[in-house]
Amino acid sequence: MALGLLIGCTGPAEEPADPGLLLGFSQIGSESAWRLGNTRDIENAASEYGINLMLENANQSQENQIAAIRRFIAYKVDVIAFSPIVEDGWDNVLLEAKEAGIPVILVDRDIETEKEGLTTCLIGADFYNEGVMAAEYLIRKADSLGLDNVNIVEISGTENSTPMRQRQAGFADTIAGDERMHILESIDGDFLTSRGAECMRYLLDTYGDDIDVVYSHNDEMTLGALPEIEKTDLIPGKDIIIISIDAGQEAIDVLKEGKINCVVECTPNLGSELMETALKLKNGEEVDAVIHPTEQVFSDEMDVSAIGPRGY
Ligand code: AHR
After folding, report:
1. 188 part of a folded domain
2. Strand, coil or helix: 50
């Protein structure tokens, strides 16, 4: 008995039972620490659940994603999952998946369609609420600093993507009732560090020290924008309020240095929900139409030294 327990405690980890499920997943690309963390989490979850994963990286191209989904259909995978780079333009390929009888899960981002029943569910963040949380932080910050006019520049994510549309709408709707808040310009930074830097250079050239706030839709663009601000005599985090989204490790480190004021969390850890949902679909079970993870805000309103490792 004692030996059995001992063996049970120290022996090799048990292989997960093979549920006989082949999952095709089309990832957008590798544009951010968030995206890399998301890919890693999905790979880890697949091996934890014993699910065979066909993973394709589309290198930021919708065409590549459509081609990947067609390959998954040809391979007769059990379930297709994908993170749509933009919301429009998926009807034809998703009709093909439907005709082949393969259920489709949306991961991270949503699609725009007039057709019924092309996808089964969405597993991803509530991007609208992220925009709301960013704006609520700004309103509290303006109150605490006693500001009576707040000029905001917005560096937004990939045009027509769900996080871009919803982070913009949640933020705009929340500041709409506050007369102090003015968005000077909203500019497309495509979720990339290099574009964040370019956008910030243009915004500084155009508006200079009229800028009170940078609202950036992800950490990469924020991290690209900060050095541009530092090249001027403006100090990020002090002369300009910096608000970011994702809360990856690098941005949290910069929050701790005081150069970012607020980072709204967007968790990339969607792998377990994806595997659970794929198994349910394979077994013909009902799934929730929308699954949002719980997210929080990290900011200079809290003891930032207590924020633990982020893992992405
Ligand atoms: O769709 C989620 C967004 O995509 C993340 O905020 C961003 O970093 C990523 O590239």
Report:
1. yes
2. coil
Which amino acid is present at 42? I
Q: What CATH number should be reported for the domain holding residue 65? A: 3.40.50.2300
Structure confidence by residue, pLDDT tens digits, 2-29? 333 333 444 445 677 788 999 999 999 9
Band (pLDDT 50/70/90 cuts) for residue 308 is: very high
**What is the arithmetic mean of pLDDT over 291-296?**
96
Mutate to test the pocket of ligand 1, among 26, 35, 192 (most ligand atoms within 8 A of CB): 35
Atom of ligand 1 nearest to the CA of 161: 1
Ligand 1 pocket: which of 40, 108, 110 to mutate (most atoms <8 Å of CB)?
108
- Examine residue 17 and state whether it is found in any structural domain, yes or no: no
Confidence of residue 88 (pLDDT cuts 50, 70, 90): very high
pTM for the whole structure? 0.94
Q: Order of strands, edge to edge, in the sheet holding 121-123?
A: 52-57, 22-27, 79-82, 104-107, 121-123, 290-291
Please report the atom of ligand 1 found closest to the CA of residue 217.
6
Residue 7 lies in a domain: no
Our answer on whether the CB atom of 165 is closer than 6 Å to any ligand 1 atom is no
pLDDT on residue 17? 77
Q: Which domain holds residue 222?
A: 127-266
User: Average pLDDT, stretch 173-199?
Assistant: 98
Q: Where are the alpha helices (DSSP H) in the chain?
A: 2-10, 33-49, 62-74, 91-99, 127-145, 162-175, 193-207, 219-230, 249-257, 271-282
Q: Best substitution site from 42, 194, 216, 218 to test ligand 1's pocket, by max atoms within 8 Å of Cβ?
A: 218
Atom number of ligand 1 nearest to Cα 268: 2
The answer on 276 and 261 residing in a single domain is no
